[in-house]
Amino acid sequence: MNQFESKQSQPKLNTDEGWIVQVYDSNRRLLCVLESSHAWIFLIGCGVGLLLSVIWINAARYSPPLEPTSTQESTILPVD
């Protein structure tokens, strides 16, 4: 085999990454890439947000109500 006829090696795919979704527009331009790590981060963020909202609601339920501030007599504005 001649050195000029050498076969170029194929790029090797990393199969340890999981899945990848590539989104293209109508002109075949790459718009965005979604990887499995993006999905995990999104799910972790949803879980943390839900946990914080439950804690916030429970804290608001069992906290004593705020006492209204004493208001002085409301000023009556003259009407023309």
Give the SSE layout:
Blueprint: E1 20-24, E2 30-35, H1 36-62
Antiparallel strand pairs: 1-2
Strand order of the largest sheet: 1-2
Average pLDDT: 80
Describe the sheet with the most strands: 2 strands, antiparallel
Shape: elongated
| Strand elements, count | 2
* Fraction in beta strands: 5-15%
Total of DSSP H or I helical runs spanning 4+ residues:
1
Task: Output the helix-strand order.
Answer: EEH
The poorly predicted ranges are none
Radius of gyration: 31 Å
Residues in helices, as a percent range: 25-40%
Mind explaining what this structure looks like?
This protein is of the alpha+beta class and 80 residues long. A two-stranded antiparallel sheet has the order 1-2. A hairpin with a 5-residue loop joins β1 and β2. The longest helix is centred in the middle third of the chain and has 27 residues. The protein is elongated. The N and C termini lie far apart (104 Å). The mean pLDDT is 80.
Tags for this entry?
elongated; alpha+beta; 2 strands; 80 residues; two-stranded antiparallel sheet; single chain
Give the structure's gist in a few sentences.
With 80 residues, this protein is α+β, with helices and mostly antiparallel strands. It is 34% helix and 14% strand.
